[in-house]
Amino acid sequence: MVSVKVTTEKKPRSVLELTVELDKEQIEKALDRAARRMSQKYNIPGFRKGKAPRFIVENYFGREALLEEASDDLIQKAFQEALKQEGIEPYAQAHLTAVNLDNPPFNFTVEVPVAPTVELPDYRAIRVPFEQDAVTDEMVNHAMEHLRDRHVVLRSLEEPRPAQHGDQLTVQIETYVDGKLLESRGEGEEIPQSTLVLDPERIVPGLYEALLGVSPNTMVDVTVRMADDHENEQVRGKDVRFVVNVLEIQERLLPEWDELPALENFEGTLDELREKTRQELIAAARKSAEDRVFLEYVRQVVAATTFDLPEALIEREADSILREREGEYERYGVRPEQVYEAQGTTREALIERLKPAAEERAKRGLVLREIARAEGLAPDETEITQEIEDIVASMEEEQRDSARIILGSELRSFVAAGIVDRKLRRRLLAIATGDPSFEQQTTPAVADETHEAAGATPAAEIAETPTGAVDSIPEAAPAVSEGNDTIASTEDGAAVEAAAHKPGME
């Protein structure tokens, strides 16, 4: 095909508008091809199929019909030639916005989404202070208490007695905020059972005192004033009413301290276990501080970056976020359609609601990708091979050969991406803090998380872990938040049970 005349205009949202001009010869050849196709498809009096000349076909059907038949083929070919000629790679489906094939100048206009553009700021000039929280003796004490608590033995009471400090209560609990149930139930649905440990470190003040001395099969109705600086604004500074039906009281028998190392399968003394716990808390506090630096640094770089993003990218990101949530639903045996119906919404509506969060996530991903390119962090073959061997070494011996093959072929790109993630994290920490020693560390990369929830219920929001706790504490040494009352998550995610607990010891 001969070259075409193309005029381009850059528009917002990474859209390139192409106006493609066609000459008369191109139009005539396209009309000839269209006439042949029409003569083959339709019966024209006096002619066998495919034998009617163009002027007969045009007289019989009209020039407008012939142009309509020709336009798809003509425009597609000219459009592809224009893309090739101008070196344009569409990012998503193009949209035809105008066509003029009747009178000169013959042309059509197409809006073509192109790849996003990202103009990084001077990201190496951005600094974020590294501030690691100190690990106190009190935090270590709390962590050791938690280790001991994991080995508690529950014993039913031989003789009924009032509840004492340290007992575990099996209860049905309803929580009211502003006169409304925190977590609604269906008509006739029974109040779920949960457990409360009678310890002021574990349940909110006021409720603890109300439950001390209570007997089984007793109802307790108490209203507690929440702190003005409570983590959750839904209850901050408000009166929260707890209606508790005490079903059973059990005694909690904790092991002796000197039994703890053996119970934890730790080869050493209690003091050595305590020191190990302290070091784990210190390592977790450092990881938490690194995460704060990393996320704040990325936030500042994103804020200073100039973006031009195609709408298709944002839609894809929103779809990706929603697919992740749908995967969670399905893991619990719930079809996404059931969730949408219960929420009174549709998947399309949720995609729209997710777009702001999707755009922010897309921006973070693009910034990290561009910095990785600018810093030349792509792994070489030696690094990829070593990474594969490290992964394979952690597997059972009978799985290693097949895993090595898969990791070296279908999953090779994921292996490479993991290497880049770690390199990028270390590089950005070094840049942000001005401390090159971060380059020598092997801290795993931070996952890019989005906390905005589509259609989140108040209960789900209440169940979020409060800020201020040390993040990522190892299983052997959980952290305990200090200070404010907290509505924290529980294993079953029930907000009513969560509302009664303080964080850290569950």
Automatic annotation (TrEMBL):
Chain intervals for the UniProt region annotation (Disordered): 467-506
Enzyme Commission identifier(s): 5.2.1.8
Subcellular localization: Cytoplasm
Main location: cytoplasm
Assigned keywords, A-Z: Cell cycle, Cell division, Chaperone, Cytoplasm, Isomerase, Rotamase
Highest taxon listed in the record's lineage: Bacteria
Annotated ranges, domain Trigger factor C-terminal: 269-423
Domain notes: Consists of 3 domains; the N-terminus binds the ribosome, the middle domain has PPIase activity, while the C-terminus has intrinsic chaperone activity on its own.
Protein name: Trigger factor
